[in-house]
## 1
Amino acid sequence: MSRDTILTERQIEVLKLKAMGLSTSEIARRLGTTDANVSATEKKARENIKRAQKTLQLVKILEAPIRIVIPPKSDLNDVVREIYRQADETGIWISHNFPSLAALIQEKAGEKIKGRMVREEIEVAITRKGEVVVL
């Protein structure tokens, strides 16, 4: 099953058993290993998954026809308007309405936005399929 993935067979097995609701101790007994080994295997698997997700996000950004750098002190509403403007110019349809796009940007930017004010520079990319990626 791990063929052509970044996860080992053991990592897949541990994640599968965790998903089934087994505790670390139950998994260790089933696999004939220690709790510490199961925990380390799970931790490494989750790190690998996170790295793979970040890599996919980077590829989307690199291939995106629209990349917008939003400076600090920008108003979130202006950011959303700029995204729609550039998407319209490029002929890309964004499936989010104004409030849901603003909420998505706030969620993905985290602490970089407070209220409607951008506190730290953020980068927004729009893929050809209209997906909004926020860094």
## 2
Amino acid sequence: MKKSITFKNVLFTAIIISIFSTISFSAQSGYINYVTDSLEVPIRTGAGYQYKIKKMIRSGSKVTILEVNQKRWAKVTYQHKGQTLNGWMPIITLQNTPITKTLLKKQIQKTSSIEKQHNQLKVEMTTLDERYKETSEELKKIKTENFQLESDLDELKSISGRSIQINQQNEKNIIEIKKLTTENSTIKDRLSQANDVVQRQWFLTGGGVLLLGLLLGRFFRIPTKKTRWDTL
């Protein structure tokens, strides 16, 4: 019965060692490993439990494997108070990734950083949203002002077009007035010349009539009786 129990214990121990050996298969010389997630792990002066404990290393401490012997003990080097020390540890106490506590701390820091960035992005988003609203209002005002300016411009174009037409019409009227003035002057000159001719004709006619009257008076004068010289 004792032999059976002993055999089972040995078999169970072999299975556990085999499992841990498989987990720590990546433990090789030159690679950085981490102390397993336990409170403290002893580091010894030699490769075996019979050797003196040199230092108790906290879980998560970083060590560098220098060599691994056939008994699955690893010679490691580590930093302690600015000094580089070395010692021996069983492979089953090492793993090639940081412990959960360290990973959790990093994840919390990462999450906090992401939350901080998220909050900052929310603030920036709010600011951008406010700027967008302000820009939209300004754009509406600019569109309204632009529409008013376009209306004013159309009105100015219309007034300008009418002004041009009026100016052109005024130029035509001025030309027509100048033409009429010239014609009026010509007519006045002609009327003045005609008046002079008429006056000369009337003068000549009056003179001719007077001369005719004198001539008629001369030739058709009634003769009178002669009187004596001594009588009145």
## 3
Amino acid sequence: MTASALLSGTDSAAALQMLARRDDDHIDLGEAALLLATRDRPGVPLDRYRDHLDKLASDVAAAYGQSGSGAGDQLAALNQVISGDLGYTGDSLSYDDLQNINLMRVIDRRKGLPIALGILYLYAGRTLGWTIEGLNFPGHFLARLDEAGDRTIFDPFNGGKIIEISDMRALLKATRGGDAELLPEHYAPASNRDILIRLQNNKKVRLLKAKQVAEALVVVEDMLMFAPANAGLWHEAGLLHSHLGNLRAAMVALEQCRDLSLSPQDKHRVAQLIGELRNRLN
């Protein structure tokens, strides 16, 4: 077994903390998602999962071949391998299963949430040098290929189905209500850190629904390892610590949030929370 084949929880934490010092463009989404997966499965060898991702990308390259051109052909090659040859599909029957978020289990089971499947598409496309991005579309993760101005938006959860503007509008209204309208920000590319945060937020939300607050706090703290400058995560950590009765830890987290917040209004609101916690301690 190679030195990289086995990761303990401590090893994965150190690796995630290293991502905090890395430029966003230099974050490998596949590797980072596997590192996050080890937080639930410490000690599970990663080599075969890394090999799977690399084989997936090489198979897509072969499917694209010499004759491929444009975003449509790129998407066809991705779909042929990911949803066709390998049989990946969106898990609509057990959508809230936490296994759908863990990339190792997604690879084992060949099914997952939109964002987990999207990471497979992004990893393969970027390995081949293609311009492929996740979008800041709310509620349902979508991705976009761009080849020489030929842009194609698609849905990784539904076999890489091409998504038109009318489809995006319908998806938005289904998740955000009938009054929701498409905005330019919904077409904006998501950063790699934001994609990883969004992946883990799915886990956090499900744990909170199950009233597993301590476990949800661990997820937030894992996110802070690779995104320590995210004021919102510090705010969440503070509230969860407070809920669990960890008042001093809550104050430390909220002080970090206050210092990182850019809005004077946000700073004021967080300062009020800190004051309330200080009064409870006294």
## 4
Amino acid sequence: MTVVTVHQAKTNLSRLIKKASNGEEVIIARGSKPVARLVPFGEVKGKRQPGSLKDQLHVGPEFFEPLPPEELSAWE
């Protein structure tokens, strides 16, 4: 595991991405406090197929109804 500061991460981003893609975890710290972790993205499983959920998801007419005032006030 590699620990670098934000400044070092900006300066050496390409190298750090290469380390992460090789499986090494990179911790980015602000001062001595860790704030982010750079890890490999992982495998993409299968191809996305547009329309693969057609006729499997249904939105009822109540979805388009206005929210009740008490629920609407929670969003404000």
